[in-house]
Every structure is written in structure tokens, then in C-alpha cells.
Amino acid sequence: MHQRTNLVSQHGVYHGANNRPSPYDLISGSEPSSKLVVFAHGYKGFKDWGPWHLLAPFFVEHGYDWLAFNFSHNGGTVQNPIDFPDLDAFAANTYSKEVLDLSLLLEKVFSGDISGRANHRWKEVYLIGHSRGGGIVTLVAGQLQDKIAGMATWAAVADFGERFPADVSAWKAEGVMYVANARTGQQLPHLFSFWEDYRKNRVKLHILNAAKRFNGPVLVAHGSKDEAVDFNNAARLHAAFPNSSLLQVEGAGHTFGGKHPWDSGALPAPMRFIAEESVRCWKQNA
Q1: Rounded to whole angstroms, how far apart are CA atoms 109 and 104?
Q2: 188-202: per-residue pLDDT in tens?
Q3: Residue 3 above 50 pLDDT?
């Protein structure tokens, strides 16, 4: 743990699906807060993508500690937490594994194994998920209704089934499907077990049903020009959550002005806006 520009940072490892180690960062002020935000990145993302790291000082300034992590099979490794150095792990990922990752991480939070300070416990835990991560945090919040104080979904998907190809026969025949990552030049593999796991667990992985079970305050934020996830996903999530506010960010794309790498020391304006509105939503409904 070290102090830097009034932030205290703890870099640790949790064990997710298949007991696979994965990194996390816990950021707080000089004194820990009673409130914690846990951030879940999306598909082809990782905790250090673009300007995500600049959200930590923003939330600390607004009275929250910040916990960001990599999913165990989607994102970097402990040794190399950026990009996708382990394509075998990436290929074997499933939505069920990501739900388990977040659940196991939160177990460590609630038990005090992740605390930032000796004997410190947070009274309120909030979840933020971007894109696929928005679906994952919704599923977990639906399981842990009494332990999660509030949520925000940023450009989130409302239905995982819609993210698969309409015809999976070629994927089944080949056993693997590749998706290009234009930024890294990689062909990212997905084993057919990804689809099989979803088909087997589609009831557990039903995002909108999970949303109906979560009564805490939720901000559903989505860009009007999202090129990856249509705005109708936000509308469906807003309709499902019992206590949500819908925010359409005019002109914003899928990453709210962010890109990787991010060279500025400031958050992009649309991202700062949704962070501000997330805090406003939670505090108004506290």
C-alpha cells in the first residue's frame, strides 16, 4: 500500500472461476470511506483500459472508495494486466464465469478479506458495470439484493442471448469462433462451450429478470450514438428495474468519449457526466 497524491492504492489478487488468479486495485483517500464502488469492465476490456483509472480519484473525491478488477478469463493476467496475453483463458470464458468472478470478489469484500485497512468494513457497496459488465453486475445484484446499496449500468446489454450469432451451426462444427480486435490485431477465440454454457444456464443469466429483483437505486446511462449496444437495451433495463433513472447521453458513443490508450489526465466529458449522475442518483435515493 502506498500514498500518492492523496490516494492510497492497494493492488491485490483474488481467485475467480476455476480458482484462476486475477488482479484488482483498491483506491481510497487518506482515510477509508464507509462506501465502496466496485467497477466491472466489459467485453474486450480490462480494469486499466483507457481512462477507467481516472474514475478512482473522481469517486474518492465524492466520498467513495474504488475497487476495479479484471475478470479471470476476460482481461489481462496478474503478470500482464493489460490487453489479452492469455488467449487460451479468453477462449474458455463464459458469462457464468464472470458472474462467479464478481460473486467471489464480493465475498472477499463482505468478509473483510479485501478492506484497505485493518478491521475496516464498508457499510454501503455500489456496483458499476460497463457494457457486458453492466449485465454481469445486474445478475449479481439480483442475487445479493440486501447487500448492494445501489448500481449504475453504463452502456449495458439487456440480454446476453442477443449477443450470440443467430446461426451457431458453423461455430459448433468448428468448435471455435474468432472475433477480431482491431486495436491489438488479435483474433480473439471463443470456444463453442461459451454458447453451451449460456444455453444451459439461460434462466440464471436472464438479465432483465435479475433487474426486477433489485430494488435499490439504479442509474441506467447510455449514449445516444452507441455503436456497439443499441439504446433499446437501456430502455428495457430501465423498465425492468423497480427504482431506476434513465439517462440518454446525447452524442456519446459506447465508451463515453474514452479510448485506449488514454493520454489525458482528465476524464472525457461524457464519462465524467455519467459518473456525476451516478453519484447524484445514489445520494438522492439514499
Answers
A1: 9
A2: 999 999 999 999 999
A3: no
Q: What is the mean pLDDT of the chain?
A: 95
CA 244 to chain centre: 18
β-bridge pairing 176-181 and 186-191:
antiparallel
206-215 pLDDT per residue, tens: 999 999 999 9
Query: Is this structure's pTM higher than 0.85?
Result: yes
Residue indicated by cell numbers 453504463: 154
pLDDT for the residue numbered 123: 96
Lookup result for grid cell 439480483: 142
In this structure, what C-alpha cell is assigned to residue 170? 458453423
Find where cell 451457431 sits: 168
- Mean pLDDT value of segment 235-249: 98
Q: For the segment 111-122, what is each residue's pLDDT rounded down to a tens digit?
A: 999 987 778 899
* The three three-digit cell numbers of residue 95, written as one number: 458469462
Task: Report whether pLDDT(4) > 60.
Answer: no
Q: Which cell numbers in the block locate residue 270?
A: 461524457
The Cβ-side half-sphere exposure at 218, using a 13 Å CA radius, reads 32
Q: Which three cell numbers stand for residue 280?
A: 447524484
> In the numeric block, which cell numbers belong to residue 84?
489479452
Q: Is the distance from CB of 50 to CB of 42 less than 8 angstroms?
A: no
